[in-house]
Amino acid sequence: xxxxxxxxxxxxxxxxxxxxxxxxxxxxxxxxxxxxxxxxxxxxxxxxxxxxxxxxxxxxxxxxxxxxxxxxxxxxxxxxxxxxxxxxxxxxxxxxxxxxxxxxxxxxxxxxxxxxxxxxxxxxxxxxxxxxxxxxxxxxxxxxxxxxxxxxxxxxxxxxxxxxxxxxxxxxxxxxxxxxxxxxxxxxxxxxxxxxxxxxxxxxxxxxxxxxxxxxxxxxxxxxxxxxxxxxxxxxxxxxxxxxxxxxxxxxxxxxxxxxxxxxxxxxxxxxxxxxxxxxxxxxxxxxxxxxxxxxxxxxxxxxxxxxxxxxxxxxxxxxxxxxxxxxxxxxxxxxxxxxxxxxxxxxxxxxxxxxxxxxxxxxxxxxxxxx
Length: 372
Known about the structure:
- The chain has 372 residues and is α/β, with parallel strands linked by helices.
- 44% of the residues lie in helices and 17% in strands.
- The protein contains 16 helices and 13 strands.
- The strands form two sheets. A seven-stranded parallel β-sheet has the order 3-2-1-4-5-6-7, sandwiched between helices.
- It is globular.
């Protein structure tokens, strides 16, 4: 390790295993391997799936009691709580703050001086459609060091905070092949997979921007018009307030759809993908979608919405794009997956692409250099 051992605090919204949390875990692991003292902080446990991985790796974790709902409320209460959050961070004697996603970014950047940290790295991961709160204005004035996992994310935050996008350092997501935790038999039983059945999956938390209902509408049309294939759709993800998941389940029930399975978020996405054939993402807003990289790494054909983030990965002419809010477009993309020769060709193309451009060692090295 070059330099001295640093105290580095990684801050997340929840101890779940979403895309940003998974990348933060890799970063924490890399910093630990480099000899640094790393603590991961979150504001809520939620399902706590990340905690097990942190403890297995020997990475310390802690909960903050700051109430995220205060950010967009009026009044002075949030400022007194913000002060307490800064003192909470100071108790860890941090050299660097590494928040991931919107709320950790604005909170950590706004209290960086109070925490005693030398720098705060603002990690832009998505495109938040939120008003600029007082806390975000304070955060901006404290001039964090801006990072993003995509050009689209860099463009978004530079326009939002009124500076040139060239000042944002791009550090792409990383991924590496890992072994599943559970065997095929477990997952076959979990989703009741039949002999010869083709499995489609979307790994995405039940947020509005993931457009689950849009996918389900296209799925119904695809199944009605393609009778040559036994197929099943698996929707796996976390639903913070239950609303998105309940809406999707209600839609399936109301439309009498019998070939859709819902699974809660799991720490064995790899095991699930091993028995799947096609991975889907119908998101309208992403930085660099981690699930798409997983589809590519584990050789699952990826059907994705045409947005800036996916075009950064696949380029302009990928044949399995769909246009958001165009059911015909998504149905056509799903129909193309039944062309086995075309599917096999692009599965191999995508595997080569992810190995070339999304190395986990490059991700770890980039963050290690930031704190060297």
